[in-house]
Amino acid sequence: MHIIHTVEEFRAVRARLPSLAFVPTMGNLHEGHIALATQAQASSRHVAASIFVNRLQFGPNEDFDRYPRTLADDAGKLEAAGVEFLFAPDERVMYPQPQTYHVEPADAHVSILEGEFRSGHFRGVATVVMKLLNIVQPTHALFGKKDYQQLMVLRNMVREFAMPIEVVPGETVRASDGLALSSRNGYLTASERLEAPRLYDRLQWIRQAVLSGRTDYSALEDEAIRTLREHGWQPEYVRVCRQTDLQRARPGEADPLVVLAAARLGSTRLIDNLEI
Ligand code: PAF
Fold first, then answer.
1. Could you tell me the distance, in angstroms and rounded to a whole number, from the CA of residue 199 to the centre of ligand 1?
2. Cβ–ligand 1 contact at 54 (below 6 Å)
3. How far is the CA of 128 from the centre of ligand 1 (A)?
4. Do residues 215 and 84 share a domain?
5. Which residue has a Cα nearest atom 6 of ligand 1?
6. In 8, 181, 217, 255, which residue has its Cα 20 to 30 A from 134's Cα atom?
């Protein structure tokens, strides 16, 4: 695997490739990222990943400084998964001067769910992903469904800016007890880790209830929130939404649905979702 640190070097490599599938990451890789890297090989013979911990998408009280930087370990995993190129810029390469131009996603897409609790997060994500896509110029870009709202925002960004890139979603990878793999799971204590699968359990419960015909979505959401609170969680939202634009589901509509949740367990914030 070639590890590339500069824009110029990446562009020179890219110019020789007929197609390129790209997996952007912030490193600290787990099986979910590796599954995306493996899946990428079905889109193109050439696969690139990137590792860059993007300051712009972290709020002032979030974990930018303590976010694990594990480049050597991550590079080994990507190489083993068949990734050919790793773009690993540092701050001076990505932000040689402070970023003063930003991608502003649609308010309707980012004032809800994660956006209610992480103001400016998706603006930071969209800005860095636009920049990464301009540097890497992939034909395919893969994003995991674990960050469902991020996938929706980036899919719309690529479409609305007519970028010649196919956005390919990747399924969420779960531990055997159902917990969605996430870099943040490493912050959980041993007892929190035992409790953590309850979030997915409640999503499955809502999914089953909706599939069996219930349309009282708010009651289902409230019930899941109550159960989580009883077990020591601080839920931020549990919401049944339309898959396409993540607006609240309304009884009687035929749109495909997804249930999304975010909750804190101790000092760790977990998110998860399940398509219905
Ligand atoms: O999902 C992530 O890891 C990040 O949000 C991304 C897409 C790499 C942008 O920094």
1. 22
2. yes
3. 8
4. no
5. 25
6. 181
What CATH number should be reported for the domain holding residue 204? 3.30.1300.10
Q: How far apart are CA 68 and CA 28, in angstroms?
A: 6
Task: Among 141, 170, 199, identify where a domain stops.
Answer: 170
Q: Does residue 125 have its Cβ closer than 6 Å to ligand 1?
A: yes
Residue 265 structural domain: 183-275
Which atom of ligand 1 is least distant from the CA of 53?
10
Indicate if 153 and 252 belong to the same structural domain.
no
Residue type, 59: G
* 55-68 burial code (b ≥16 CB/10 A, e <16): ebbbeeeebeeebe
5 counts as catalytic:
no
The sheet with strand 257-265 has its strands ordered as 234-242, 257-265, 268-275
Q: Is 147 in the pocket of ligand 1 (CB under 6 A)?
A: yes
Please identify which of the residues 33, 46, 109, 121 carries the catalytic annotation: 33
Distance (Å, whole) CA 32 – CA 26: 13
Interhelix angle 121-136/7-14, nearest 10 degrees: 50
pLDDT tens, N- to C-terminus, the chain (276 residues): 999 999 999 999 999 999 999 999 999 999 999 999 999 999 999 999 999 999 999 999 888 998 999 999 999 999 999 999 999 999 999 999 999 999 999 999 999 999 999 999 999 999 999 999 999 999 999 999 999 999 999 999 999 999 999 999 999 999 999 999 998 899 999 999 999 999 999 999 999 999 999 999 999 999 999 999 999 999 999 999 999 999 999 998 989 999 999 999 999 999 999 999
What ligand 1 atom has the least distance to the C-alpha of 50? 8
